[in-house]
Amino acid sequence: MKPLKSPKITATSQRRYSEKEYQDMPDELVWESFRLGNEATFSYIYKNFASDLFSYGFQFCGDSHLVEDCMQNVFIYLRKRRENLGQVKSIKSYLFKCIQYEIIKRLKERGVLVDTNEYQYKKAFCIALSPETIMIESESQEQKRMMINQALDQLTSRQRQALILLYEEEMSYSEIADIMGFSEVKSARKLVYRALASLKEVINPS
């Protein structure tokens, strides 16, 4: 069986691809189609990533109105400047970085001093296990859930952010490093390992 070929993207390609065709395309091709002016591709990017982008932005600052405004600014900017944008390997991680930058910029305009090493929003990147998560059937399991949630709460917001990006958003360490502003991928790995070690120490103390 011959391997499937990706569609050729050209400056005159304004074809409205199907949802499945978009999903089967590498992000690089989807982004190139957007950069070359395909409005259908812009609509697909918005439709496919807006929900995740809002959730991430809200985790970051806890202000839904601010996140909505920042999302609008991000997509307006991308649409206006698309011809001058560079290549993108992961659209999702690129958009996460954009919304994060926009939120920080807006917060600074409000006079909020933003320390990117530890976010001021106390519930930033909150992680909590529901009873259904571990199928609680006894009092001891409920105590275990409470212990895990307490351990998660003791992590720094940066540690929780890294865990969410890795496990919930399924991003690579390289993407996590880029979003979180690390110059080296190993810094993202260290942050995750330290977070997991902290959880293990609280849940199973030696």
Name its key features.
mainly alpha, 206 residues, 9 helices
Write up this protein:
- The protein has about 210 residues and is mainly α.
- The protein is about 65% helix and about 0% strand.
- The N terminus is likely disordered.
Q: What is the compact description of this entry?
A:
This protein is mainly α and 206 residues long.
Strand content: under 5%
What composes the largest sheet?
A: none
Number of strands: 0
Please tally the helical runs, counting DSSP H or I stretches of 4 or more residues.
9
**Secondary-structure element pattern, one letter each:** HHHHHHHHH
Query: Low-confidence parts lasting 5 or more residues at pLDDT below 50?
Result: 1-7, 129-138
The class by helix and strand makeup works out as mainly alpha
The overall pLDDT, averaged over residues, is: 80
Cα-to-Cα separation, first versus last residue = 55 Å
Overall helicity: 55-70%
Which outline best applies?
A: globular
The Rg value, from CA coordinates, equals: 20 Å
Outline the secondary-structure elements.
Blueprint: H1 19-24, H2 27-35, H3 39-61, H4 64-81, H5 91-109, H6 139-154, H7 157-168, H8 173-180, H9 185-203
Helix pairs in contact: 2-3, 3-4, 3-5, 4-5, 5-8, 6-9, 7-9, 8-9
